[in-house]
Each structure stands twice: as C-alpha cells, then as structure tokens.
Amino acid sequence: MAQKCSFPSDQYAGQGDRCQNNAQLTTTFCREEFKEAMFSIQPDKCSGPDSFNPGFYQTLFVSIQL
Fold first, then answer.
1. Does residue 40 surpass a pLDDT of 90?
2. Residue ranges of the domains in the chain?
C-alpha cells in the first residue's frame, strides 16, 4: 500500500499552539517529501554539521535508503 505524503503546510501558522506545531514537526515523512525538500536547496549551499553540502546528497540520492 502506498504511503500518503503530506508536505508540511502553514495551516498552524500564527495560532501559537505549540502542541499542534510539535505534532506536525514530529510526524513521519516519506521519501518523496525528503526528495522535494532536498532538491529545493541550491547544491552549493554551505555544508551542514556533517560537512556535506546539499549537492552531495542530491548526487547520491538514488543510493540513500529511507
């Protein structure tokens, strides 16, 4: 059965309800959501704490298992 993806929206913006915001931020995500987020970043942006920039992950995306 295919997993339904729901990219985070701003439906809770401005409501100030931390419980709802926390629930939205801690829900599981699917591979398509990860791919959309990863490829929306410029590949040459600065690296993260692991010293790899987005281009590294974009190039090796097919090898990444989620």
1. yes
2. 30-66
